[in-house]
Sequence to fold (54 residues):
Amino acid sequence: MSHHHHRKDYASIFKERSLRSIKLRHKTDKWLKLSLFVLALLMVLLVCAAYLFG
Fold:
């Protein structure tokens, strides 16, 4: 009985760890998309400025 409980603990630890890594990945994905969006916006603004003032 105690052996089964031990296996359950391992499973819960693994689940917790994987959930944490998934959350971390979501956070980094969000920042990556945001930075790419900002970069694209800056490029568009630079092109517009070069077109208007160039």
Residues 18 and 24 are 10 Å apart (CA to CA). The longest helix spans residues 2-53. The chain is about 95% helix and 0% strand. Helices lie at 2-53.
